[in-house]
């Protein structure tokens, strides 16, 4: 395809000499000691990057910039319409905060290799906690604030944190989210008990500390600031974990994605120039949450490693106060690039279909809009392009990779956009499409999208304490390849198209959720004999979960009552972010003769799509019953029909 981008040369250069390519990019990072090998194929499950090197991520994200004379440069701008506050924190101030918090954690016994759980809203102290953990060589695990007690418990038991850093509350537009009752629920359910909680008291809701367990964040940090306590950046192996981020798997047990220190820094630093076209000192805004991978990589680590200014927005695209919030932030803070999920733009478009509110603001400083996290639908892309007047760049990645698998590298020179495709594989990724038997398919043919091993720097080397699960979940099905669990195709120009997940994961408002996890919770309701959860298409959130319940014989409550309880149970156990509001009681579930629930067919019925009757179906009449139940409720395609 004819274009002036440097992409093809750079990608070919990587392919010809992967180790040389990454060694060159690694020069942008400060190392305490050099690696023995850029890639050691004999270490780890499929090899390890920068084996033998030592480094520290906090040093590269913070101290290095101060030492280079950029201490006055803004590191974080916190814009919080939900509290009506704005704060700018310079690199020098960030170093002071991180150093003092590292001292607090050290006082509580945290050292190299220990885990620190972080359960916080979108405040700069959450970033400080991540960096302070890294400064000590500890391993953080951030849990998204929209997850509730049960999700906390499974994570606590898996990573066994010494300390939890948290806040008294988060703030949603319609309510204050008190964290202490959620933590209490998590700790009650978990078998493991952390020693301490460091609690940031927020004026919107003060919590009562637990005697002997809780430490006041601000008091303890300020005491170390006054004392001028120094905490050096602990040298760690490049291959040591920086963090564990749990993500939905095919069961209720989330997968602990491990991120290392060295490779992670190298890939993220490269991406800021090559993919996002951002220069140090510019303002980069990832409108996500620190609890998600987009937040880890592009609210926290990449912009700071790059010496850019990261914008932290504690608000929503709509309702805080209106659908012009994004435009205000872009103007006020001179945002050069915005990165968010398509659902945010669908929400804005729904409230302000003609994009009239943008007329009140000067957004001319914005160069690019990046979208990821879910499929970017053509309508949203075109609308955003028209309203903002800047290129809209879709890119595809996963919690597991931590950065783009396929994208359009604006910094290398933008490639022609094909709407519906996140464009082309980035250097480091040899993306292929295989059929179910593992044979390559023709260009343009749908199949399993895989990445030839080894995965590039920043991608997960394994799952936390679970090498075997890592192999089973990602590597065994297609030997020699990483299974992305996304289905799609590559066209004749090498453009990648992502069409659907091949497992039970659904994507709700850009949030990755496991229907299997929801089924486990619903199955725990005493009146539910059996259930199936599917994701049905939704104009705003992309997908919404819908649960089908079969009740036990002899249940005295009404169906409506049990359905209400089930909705409440999912909210209390998994959290409001599951957005589980549709529960429908049915008499039977469609199954194959071997007893497998036909979720895919149910989803097609709910979405009003054509489907082929599975040859192995036990009783085809059940499909009609499912359709009738959905119709009676006006759910999915039936809602659109009746609208
Ligand atoms: N803490 C507590 N509760 C939270 C939360 C948090 N951090 N984040 C979301 N929730 C709650 C919401 O308040 C909502 O509760 P409700 O059922 O009482 O209304 C529920 O979880 C569902 O949240 P969500 O699906 O996000 O819906 P929403 O109506 O609040 O917002 C969007 C919809 C589209 C505006 C919002 O999802 C959004 O901005 N998404 C795009 C950006 C993004 O975060 N992407 C993620 C990865 S890039
Ligand atoms: P997460 O791990 O939360 O980032 O979710 C990763 C999953 O989201 C991917 O496996 C895809 O199914 C989906 N996804 C992310 N980005 C895109 C995109 N640009 N286009 C289509 N699907 C995407």
Automatic annotation (TrEMBL):
Signal peptide interval: none
Residue stretches making up the AMP-binding enzyme C-terminal domain: 518-596
Annotated protein name in UniProt: Propionyl-CoA synthetase
PROSITE patterns for this protein: AMP_BINDING
SUPFAM superfamilies (UniProt xref): Acetyl-CoA synthetase-like
Top-rank lineage group of the source organism: Bacteria
Domain Acetyl-coenzyme A synthetase N-terminal: 7-61
Domain AMP-dependent synthetase/ligase residues, every copy: 65-452
Gene Ontology MF annotations: propionate-CoA ligase activity
Membrane-spanning parts: none
Pfam families xref list: ACAS_N (PF16177), AMP-binding (PF00501), AMP-binding_C (PF13193)
GO CC entries: intracellular organelle lumen
Recorded family membership: Belongs to the ATP-dependent AMP-binding enzyme family.
């Amino acid at each position: 395809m004819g274009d002036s981008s440097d992409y093809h040369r750079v990608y070919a250069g990587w392919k010809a000499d992967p180790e040389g390519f990454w060694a060159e990019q690694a020069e942008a990072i400060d190392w305490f000691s050099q690696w023995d090998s850029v890639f050691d194929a004999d270490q780890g499950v499929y090899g390890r990057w920068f084996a033998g090197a030592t480094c520290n991520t906090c040093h590269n994200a913070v101290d290095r910039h101060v030492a280079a004379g950029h201490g006055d440069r803004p590191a974080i701008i916190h814009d919080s319409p939900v509290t009506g506050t704005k704060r700018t924190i310079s690199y020098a101030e960030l170093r002071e905060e991180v150093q003092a918090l590292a001292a607090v954690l050290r006082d509580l016994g945290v050292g190299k290799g220990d885990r620190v759980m972080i359960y916080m809203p979108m405040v700069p102290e959450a970033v400080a906690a991540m960096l302070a953990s890294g400064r000590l060589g500890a391993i953080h695990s951030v849990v998204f604030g929209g997850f509730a007690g049960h999700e906390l418990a499974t994570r606590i038991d898996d990573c066994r944190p010494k300390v939890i850093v948290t806040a008294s509350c988060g703030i949603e537009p319609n309510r204050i989210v008190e964290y202490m009752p959620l933590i209490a629920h998590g700790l009650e359910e978990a078998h493991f008990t952390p020693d301490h909680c460091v609690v940031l008291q927020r004026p919107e809701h003060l919590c009562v500390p637990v005697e002997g367990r809780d430490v006041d964040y601000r008091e303890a940090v300020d005491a170390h600031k006054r004392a001028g306590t120094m905490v050096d950046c602990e040298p760690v192996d490049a291959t040591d974990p920086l963090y564990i981020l749990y993500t939905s798997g095919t069961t209720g047990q989330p997968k602990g994605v491990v991120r290392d220190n060295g490779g992670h820094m190298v890939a993220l630093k490269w991406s800021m120039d090559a993919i996002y076209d951002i220069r140090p000192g510019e303002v980069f805004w990832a409108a996500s949450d620190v609890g998600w991978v987009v937040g880890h990589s592009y609210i926290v680590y990449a912009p700071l490693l790059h010496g850019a200014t990261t914008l932290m927005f504690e608000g929503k695209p709509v309702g805080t106060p209106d659908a012009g919030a994004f435009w205000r932030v872009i103007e006020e803070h001179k945002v050069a690039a915005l990165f968010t999920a398509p659902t945010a733009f669908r929400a804005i478009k729904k409230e302000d279909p003609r994009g009239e509110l943008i007329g009140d603001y000067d957004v001319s400083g914005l160069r690019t809009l990046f979208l990821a996290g879910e499929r970017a639908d053509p309508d949203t892309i075109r609308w955003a392009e028209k309203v903002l007047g800047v290129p809209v760049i879709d890119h595809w990645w996963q919690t597991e990779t931590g950065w783009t698998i396929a994208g359009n590298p604006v910094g290398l020179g933008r490639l022609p956009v094909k709407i519906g495709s996140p464009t082309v594989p980035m250097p480091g990724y040899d993306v292929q499409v295989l059929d179910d038997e593992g044979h390559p398919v023709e260009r343009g043919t749908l199949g399993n999208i895989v990445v030839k091993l080894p995965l590039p720097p920043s991608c997960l080397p394994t799952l936390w304490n679970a090498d075997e699960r890592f192999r089973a979940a990602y590597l065994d099905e297609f030997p020699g390849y990483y299974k992305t669990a996304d289905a799609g195709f590559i066209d004749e120009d090498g453009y990648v198209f992502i069409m659907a997940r091949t497992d039970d994961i659904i994507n709700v408002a850009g949030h990755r959720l496991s229907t299997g996890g929801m089924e486990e919770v619903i199955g725990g309701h005493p009146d539910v004999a059996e259930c199936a959860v599917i994701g049905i298409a939704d104009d705003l959130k992309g997908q919404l979960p819908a649960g089908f319940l079969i009740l036990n014989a002899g249940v005295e409550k009404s169906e409506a009552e049990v359905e209400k309880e089930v909705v409440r149970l999912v909210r209390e156990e998994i959290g409001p972010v599951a957005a589980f509001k549709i529960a429908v009681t049915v008499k039977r579930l469609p199954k194959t003769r071997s007893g497998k629930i036909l979720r895919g067919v149910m989803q097609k019925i709910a979405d009003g799509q054509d489907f082929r009757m599975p040859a192995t179906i036990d009783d085809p009449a059940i499909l009609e019953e499912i359709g009738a139940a959905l119709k009676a409720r006006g759910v999915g395609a039936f809602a659109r029909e009746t609208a």
